[in-house]
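Design request, tokens follow.
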């Protein structure tokens, strides 16, 4: 059985107990565990073995919030927490929450892996492309300005400065784009690390 099927089976047991309290008390009035398992097997048309049902009942009894009461004289009985537990989602709800945690954790790992890949590519790009372009841009701008000065003695210093300023603006624009992209990636990384931290803290015994 899958985890989801197990959760549904345990919820079915709890719902049956709530809907058939009198029958349930009669069945659990004796000391025969075999009879108890046999009765629960009938609840599932014997599609689940008595041993499996017995394990499910033990898990319900040992659930931390005491969602059922276990009496020696009358057996397992629903209590004030049983209906509340089912209304809040029951074992199926717990399964869905755990499943979501696992999905979120996998997404977080993907974000971290993406960040590492992007950072590696960015660092490589900066080494191979950014600084050579930066140097070439400076020399190109200076050369262009000098060439214009030589070809036209009347060119103004303002025009020269304007060319240099345009080059600087393009370089600054590149830097800003890289910074924005990195900041967005940092935010996603932070969210991913928080998800992992929450998952690990919830998983502690």
């Amino acid at each position: 059985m899958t985890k989801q099927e197990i959760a549904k089976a345990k919820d079915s047991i709890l719902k049956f107990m709530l809907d058939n309290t009198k029958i349930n008390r009669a069945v659990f009035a004796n000391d025969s565990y075999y009879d108890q398992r046999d009765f629960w097997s009938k609840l599932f048309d014997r599609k689940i073995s008595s041993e499996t049902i017995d394990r499910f009942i033990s898990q319900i009894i040992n659930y931390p919030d005491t969602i059922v009461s276990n009496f020696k004289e009358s057996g397992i009985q629903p209590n004030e927490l049983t209906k509340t537990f089912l209304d809040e989602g029951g074992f199926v709800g717990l399964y869905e929450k755990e499943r979501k945690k696992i999905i979120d954790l996998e997404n977080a790992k993907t974000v971290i892996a993406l960040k590492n890949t992007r950072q590696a590519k960015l660092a490589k790009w900066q080494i191979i492309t950014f600084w050579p372009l930066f140097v070439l841009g400076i020399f190109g701008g200076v050369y262009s300005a000098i060439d214009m000065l030589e070809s036209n003695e009347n060119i103004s210093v303002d025009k020269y400065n304007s060319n240099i300023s345009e080059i600087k603006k393009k370089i600054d624009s590149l830097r800003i784009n890289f910074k924005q992209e990195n900041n967005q990636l940092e935010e996603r990384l932070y969210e991913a690390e928080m998800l992992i931290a929450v998952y690990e803290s919830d998983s502690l015994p």
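Comment from the thread starter after seeing the answer: thanks! The chain has two domains: 3-88, 92-203.
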